[in-house]
């Protein structure tokens, strides 16, 4: 395999080489003043990318997005609490599956059809009627490419006792999130998607309201390793340059995270979000020009990942394996009831990657006899890219 | 800071440069055939370093040793179960603290004095009398440098219903462990110590007995992310080259792990254990030649880490910060009731590192006025090294 392969699955991705080089840092232990500075800097930058203030606390723990998910709910729940899960796919449903291990009652709200999100008004209505202790939204569901808007719900819940947890695994660093304006209490993500760092870090942001709840809640359901009270203390100690110990931070990944955040802030979050919008538009439009449908409805389209529907005659497995053999890793669908494939376009993705990916998909469809000519997808993408000055 | 600094804390350590380079691997996603091969190879090698058979299952999860600890106990316990924790320090006590969050009853067995281990006969007697569902041993407690022998206890428990969990965080890859002969059911470690891989991986080995219990136990207490049933399925799927998804593996760390395991097996575990024995002996003897005491008693001395006692007049903080400023990172004690410092000597540590570390400690003690002349520690270490042909 050539290491130059394009990794267009919805995470892991193609990382910036400068970020990868940071992973090989030597001579650094978790309590050295140099690492303490780096970790503190990374935490500060984590606030910046989601427009959080000093009063928000980011937390970085060795683990995956799923660890982030479990920590994000269990720390704010106690026995008998009620949770509303808004699910637009596999990862929304994961909240439900996860919570079934805990002594809480969980209701699930789903869109009318796969590919839609749930109307904010519907969510608010149910929450007002039922008075949940915690509500979860999946900002972008990696299985469907559906983006669930946050702000309207967040504004409504902000001054209530309900904690709003947002799964930002497939969105943070690519989609617009403003912790304050969006009224998010707990946001979590993994490192290997739009944040552009190899997998192994779960990152969680806590609002002042969440921090208050953390302090007050008696007998939270969190496992020991996911005890955010302990982790918040550790993070604060690093920011105060007097590190305390709970578990050894994933030093090398944190150093790489700092580097990636530096690159993200140099680009600027607004530019970055716009880039994700333009590149995803080019990709979606190309797929449509090839006669394919997008799983996510227009109103709820994510910009970090696209799920593309295939006619029943086309074999998604064949398409994906041809693309891989041609040097572009894309992913099969996660839902069994739909014939589709998924393409991630996030982090340091660029127009070259998008063009090459569209080209491979065209050739794969041509081989399977679905297309009788090549070039329509590329042409459409070119038009979109040119229109946006790319 | 020079990245050539010696990292002689008890983990993180100085990694092999070839292992660090692997971290920067590009173009690899978690389902690519290339990564599947690498992960399967790493799992096979993980069996080899602890002399496990095909019937043992290693599991690699993104997280720290503490995650490994929580997964290792909660999957084998159900409400009302009884646990015996054998604790020789901070990390033994961590089992107790962790288990206090779960509906089980935990008893703790401690040595008569700090620095001792617990007699196997005493453990066996208590287990036979009380009939615990699970017993934990800390093979090497990083806080005290005490090694708790496993085999006698393991042989006794092997044919009983009791699950033997061993914390190998500060031992696997440096101390001798033979899963079969030692009768260990669940062994866990972190990547950043004697295994020689940057922090971020928890590794767990399960015996056939543990795998059976995993299958049979109704309502285990494990959190969702730590559900070993799910992870065992994932590991087996990678070994069968048909990966299933639960959480994204820490791809780059796993690639580095494979490399480090390759180096470990090339050296050979017997040679590796002997190297740890010789280097730790040289270090201990040097400390004694300087008039310092070793916290661990001779019978229970670890070979991966040494805790060195200081006379009350010597400031451990000053000693550690001088050493750091001189390019050797060593660690303060974790227990408050003893004036001591800790030195890790594990993984790819060599005689040069040991000599340089002893030299720095000599100079630090000389500066503080504790030593009136230099060289006694070095001379003693030289004699030990030369005697062993190093």
Secondary structure blueprint with pairings:
Two copies of one chain form a homodimer.
Chain A: E1 6-7, H1 17-23, H2 33-49, E2 57-62, H3 65-74, E3 82-86, H4 90-99, E4 105-109, H5 120-130, E5 134-138, E6 140-141, E7 146-147, H6 151-157, E8 163-167, H7 179-182, E9 186-190, E10 201-206, H8 208-216, H9 228-239, H10 251-267, H11 269-289, E11 293-294, E12 305-309, H12 316-325, E13 328-329, E14 331-332, E15 340-344, H13 351-367, H14 376-387
Parallel strand pairs in A: 1-13, 3-4, 3-5, 5-8, 8-9
Antiparallel strand pairs in A: 2-10, 6-7, 9-10, 11-12, 12-15, 14-15
Describe the protein's architecture and organization.
Two copies of one chain form a homodimer. By secondary structure, chain A is α/β, with parallel strands linked by helices. The first copy, chain A, folds into two domains: 6-10 and 268-387, Alpha-Beta Complex (Aspartate Aminotransferase, domain 1); 17-266, Aspartate Aminotransferase, domain 2. Chain A is built from 14 helices and 15 strands. Chain A has a seven-stranded mixed β-sheet with strand order 2-10-9-8-5-3-4, sandwiched between helices. In chain A, strands 11-12-15-14 form a four-stranded antiparallel β-sheet, covered by helices on one side. In chain A, β8 (163-167), α7 (179-182) and β9 form a beta-alpha-beta unit. Chain A is globular, with a radius of gyration of 21 Å. The mean pLDDT of chain A is 97. Chains A, B: GO terms for molecular function: alanine-glyoxylate transaminase activity; L-serine-pyruvate transaminase activity.
């Amino acid at each position: 395999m050539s290491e130059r392969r394009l990794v267009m699955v919805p995470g892991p991705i193609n990382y910036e080489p400068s970020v990868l080089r940071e992973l090989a840092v030597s001579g650094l232990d978790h309590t050295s003043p140099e690492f303490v500075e780096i970790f503190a800097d990374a935490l500060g930058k984590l606030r910046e990318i989601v427009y959080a203030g000093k009063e928000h606390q980011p937390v970085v723990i060795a683990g995956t997005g799923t660890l982030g998910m479990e920590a994000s709910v269990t720390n704010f729940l106690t026995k008998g609490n009620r949770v509303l899960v808004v699910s637009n796919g596999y990862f929304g449903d994961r909240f439900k599956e996860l919570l079934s291990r805990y002594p809480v009652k969980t209701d699930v709200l789903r869109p009318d059809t796969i590919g839609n999100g749930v109307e904010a008004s519907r969510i608010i209505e149910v929450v007002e009627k039922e008075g949940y202790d915690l509500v979860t939204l999946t900002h972008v569901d990696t299985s469907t490419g559906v983006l669930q808007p946050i702000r309207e719900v967040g504004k409504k819940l902000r001054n209530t006792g309900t904690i709003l947890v947002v799964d930002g695994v497939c969105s943070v660093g690519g989609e617009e999130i403003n912790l304050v304006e969006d009224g998010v209490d707990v946001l979590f993500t993994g490192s290997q998607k739009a944040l552009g760092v190899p997998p192994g870090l779960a990152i969680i942001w806590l609002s002042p309201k969440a921090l208050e709840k953390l302090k007050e809640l008696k007998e939270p359901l969190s496992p020991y390793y996911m005890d955010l009270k302990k982790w918040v203390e550790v993070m604060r100690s690093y920011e105060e340059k007097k590190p305390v110990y709970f578990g050894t931070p994933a030093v090398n990944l944190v150093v790489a995270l700092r580097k990636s955040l530096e690159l993200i802030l140099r680009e600027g979050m607004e530019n970055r979000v716009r880039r994700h919008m333009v590149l995803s538009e080019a990709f979606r439009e190309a797929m449509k020009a090839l006669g394919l449908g997008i799983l996510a409805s227009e109103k709820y389209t994510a910009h970090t990942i696209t799920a593309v529907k295939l006619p029943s005659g086309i074999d998604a497995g064949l398409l994906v394996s041809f693309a891989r053999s041609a040097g572009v890793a894309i992913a099969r669908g996660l839902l069994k009831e739909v014939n589709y494939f998924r393409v991630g376009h996030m982090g340091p993705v660029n127009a070259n990657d998008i063009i090459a990916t569209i080209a491979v998909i065209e050739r794969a469809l041509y081989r399977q006899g679905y297309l009788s000519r090549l070039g329509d997808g590329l042409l459409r993408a070119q038009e979109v890219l040119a229109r946006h000055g790319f």
